């Protein structure tokens, strides 16, 4: 042994304190510097390299105890350095410390001799503990080598090596019974040595591995043809042996035949000698890395890679057997609200709880996967018909009815489920996943909290939606939009007090499109901000034009998307066209939706206050349909509430007074706010609203939304020249 030679030659001296030498190989300077400082101790020398070539040069010239190695180096892969070390007899302990996510690299590094594989995003304490452990092991090895050197060429040396070996060393007679076994059997398997002498090797072999173990334990060959590194499971003695995590360990077996020369011409087989090395920890590390490669670490569910593999297998089996396969695409409703309100840790707990409830609704052979974020998929192989899928979907919805605990409070959530079935809705994994996803978005568009099976019509709608998105971008470039205006009439004074600007899209092929057709798409695609700027400038330009025709006292109502209030520049963008056309700010009314009051209320309140400081009026559209709160009315500096047309429409159907409208009018009066009813279509509704105390209205009874010139004629007929009263 090399260390023995150095001892006897005087190169090593126990009386001289030894310095531990660490080499950090990483191409990032900050990593080398940071972990060099973390690992620095008295009695340690820290060396660093940035490339594989530098590392090989340093390893060849210096005696390195611990090599901390990144795999992805500029000039070579870290495993190439490890491959170079073995034939060059470099004995440094290798700790792989890398951001490489590839499972193959991790397993190869462990097989090339790395003692640990640590990811860079792990806790730095893990690296510190691993290095300390490695240096302690090196110290023990040096002490062991020192003792071995003094016993060299003696019977004591050989016995010491065998008895203190980290491996199980044994010999068998020709019938497979133990003749000798070292003490390592006690610490690894819990057997006393004398318990096994004379016993068959099958005593310690896992029953499932007996057949393949037979030829290795009964090995008669020697030299290169003998058994080397054969993996096998060994049984521990019993459960009362302490410090055992399981009843089996994994070992690699190397063995060869033993022969005795009876005379010069004959050799007699007298048994087999072998070595068993414990690789349980390495196998666990490989299994952990393999699990992480194919599973979601948060929920423990299969990830999209493993799910796709199982889906493809299920489709192939169903194709041969003439069966059906069900697929669900599930999205957790209102998940963003939890993340934004309580933080990502509470959001993660909600996802884990959701996954547990859904899995409890599935059959043993079904697979649930997390695709990412709050989206999940469920594979349902071998289903009789679609009723079986809807039954499971209903079970999932029912399982979500009890509240979850989020941030110490009850939180109720729902899920939107899209369903696709092989072969009716697709015959490939990609097609099934796409169609289930389309069905899921359809149910979300219909109000969430439910399930829907895919139909071909959905794809047509989806394609049309994609086409419409592309055409919408062209419409912005070519200015295909126009504004129509609907008058707001004071029925007591008989005059127009304001107009609401309503955008229309003059599509070259589809004709005139209303906002419900394209505004949600614009919000989703981020085009809403450019559209809002156009609406603000065009409506202000039109108001200035009317002023030139003697119409000065009409208030212009402009709808603003809730997404606008997430931008810091919303106030400046609203003021810019008002100032450009020199309009009185009091003639501009910005309409906000009621659900905006619930979304980051403090930020919204501040921006609304800023608008009011400049004299701009604020109204709440569709009041009473969402999250009405008197507290929000008290805190928001608004001027007007608009009664939603759904309440106005009910006036015809009920034939009696509306308590909702009475309540809204009463609330508005209590807060000193104006009231405007929209969607008035009949004289009956007009009179009923008047009886409830509502004075200002808009709707088709007076006029539909019309182009600017027609609106001007309407106003002039009404002679809207009386000044507005605030």
UniProtKB/TrEMBL annotation:
Residues 154-211 form the PAS domain. Residues 323-456 form the GGDEF domain. The modification 4-aspartylphosphate is found at residue 70. Gene3D superfamilies: 3.30.70.270, 3.40.50.2300, EAL domain, PAS domain. Keywords: Phosphoprotein. Residues 465-719 form the EAL domain. It comes from the Bacteria. Residues 21-135 form the Response regulatory domain. This is EAL domain-containing protein. It comes from Aromatoleum diolicum.
